[in-house]
Amino acid sequence: MGMYDNLKISTSKLPLSDSEKVSIGENADWQTKDFECILSTAEITDDGKLRFLTFKYDWDENAESALGKLTGKKGALITKDEHWIDIAHHGYVNFYTSINNIWYEFNAKFTDGHLVNIERVGCP
Fold first, then answer.
1. Sign of CA dihedral 123, 29, 4, 84
2. Count of Cβ atoms closer than 10 Å to residue 24 Cβ
3. Domain-located, residue 74
4. Number of domains forming the structure of the chain
5. Predicted TM-score (pTM) above 0.70
6. What is the pLDDT of residues 9-32, one digit of tens each?
7. Which residue ranges of the chain lie beneath pLDDT 70?
8. 44 lies in some domain
């Protein structure tokens, strides 16, 4: 299994039946391989913008990590300066997940970073 990026989107924006939306829930874990596949996080906002979460890493001498708890040593990488950057993507973004053994897959079409429409792929 290869690397991917995470995608956030409100379930209400997806072309699904009401019962499917309830089954999926509001915070499903969507994946995409249409970006850099480095486990980054992208989002399609409620107003249809595409954006990426960016941040910097820093070392905190006092932070505890899971490994540090085992070894008794302190210090860990932390994230700082988190913020979202709008992306002027032009084209399609394919995203997907499996919930309760049901495959859900969509193509979101963007023009200059703005969502045009979302279509379901391989609808059962």
1. positive
2. 18
3. no
4. 1
5. yes
6. 999 999 999 999 999 999 899 999
7. 1, 123-124
8. yes
